[in-house]
Amino acid sequence: MSGWLLAAAVVLLATAAAALVRVARGPDAADRMMGAQLVGTTGVAVVILLAAHEGNWAMLDVALVLSLLAAFASVAFVKAASRDGQGDPEEDP
Fold first, then answer.
1. CA angle 78, 80, 84 (to 5 degrees)
2. Residue 25's Cα: distance from chain center in Å?
3. At a CB cut-off of 8 Å and minimum separation 6, what does 74 contact?
4. Hey, how many other C-beta atoms are within 10 angstroms of the C-beta on 44?
């Protein structure tokens, strides 16, 4: 079973590498943000698979923090990319 977990982690890391290429060469800011979100989601999946493989369930806390950071990054991107800031507290009226 642990061989399958490691194989799945390797496939997910290959997906993350492809997403990093999109982040580096994305033609638009939204494409780059989607690539960054894919890297975050893949990172969470890899950490969960490694936690299951190692039997170290404290690594799930790392996965939880990583998922929260990815969610906050997407909210920050949407607020920064919108035309009027949509309630951005740093924007001048």
1. 95
2. 17
3. 33, 37
4. 21
40: which residues sit within 8 A by CB, 6+ positions away? 66, 67, 69, 70, 73
**Residues 41-60: pLDDT tens digits?**
998 999 998 898 888 989 99
pLDDT for 65: 93
Q: What is the phi-psi region of residue 47: left when phi exceeds 0, alpha when psi lies from -120 to 50, beta otherwise? A: alpha
Give the pLDDT score at 54.
87
Opening angle at CA 13, ends 8 and 18, nearest 5: 125
User: Which of 51, 55, 41, 32 minimizes the C-alpha distance to 13?
Assistant: 41
